[in-house]
Automatic annotation (TrEMBL):
This is PAS domain-containing protein. It comes from the Bacteria. Pfam families: PAS_5 (PF07310).
């Protein structure tokens, strides 16, 4: 639920510790960890949408697509309905590197590249302006690997946690 009684000055954006993560995102992180096996990441096939029913509208699946020149591109395989609302359109099937806003595009590509290169599970907060109000979101970014090792999909979830 959005906290409309939040202070007028929002806390800083950026990485957040797990202890400050919204309980719904903490539950997703715990779910993902439960799907991991020693030394192996879960695959997309390990993730059951019915088990994530409460978060479905807030989930994105990003496909990692290797290119012939050794680089990667990222494509939204699923763009959750809540993201459609906040972004004003459905990005399912769209390439991340073709997003119109250059700053946003560079941030996303950099974040996804970091996840693929390191297997990190970033937890972060960010702001989105809607109707002249700042909406604070928290997000987790979780790597998935069909073979347990090479990341070929990213599951992300972002939730509004405050309005300032």
């Amino acid at each position: 639920m959005i906290d409309t009684a939040a202070p007028s000055t929002p806390p800083p954006q950026g990485p957040i510790p797990e202890s400050e993560l919204d309980p719904r995102l903490k539950a997703l992180l715990d779910y993902w960890r439960g799907k991991c096996s020693p030394g192996h990441l879960p695959a997309r096939a390990d993730i059951d949408p019915l088990e994530l029913r409460a978060l479905l509208g807030n989930i994105n699946l990003i496909e990692v697509v290797p290119q012939a020149d050794g680089t990667r591109r990222f494509r939204y395989r699923l763009f959750g309905t809540e993201f459609v609302f906040y972004h004003g359109g459905d990005l399912t099937g769209q390439w991340v590197d073709e997003i119109g806003n250059a700053v946003y595009r560079q941030q996303l590509v950099g974040l996804y590249e970091h996840v693929v290169a390191t297997g990190a599970t970033p937890m972060l907060s960010y702001d989105y302006i809607l109707d002249s109000r700042r909406h604070r979101f928290q997000a987790v970014i979780l790597p998935l690997a069909s073979n347990g090792r090479e990341i070929d999909m990213i599951l992300s979830s972002g939730l509004p946690v405050g309005v300032y």
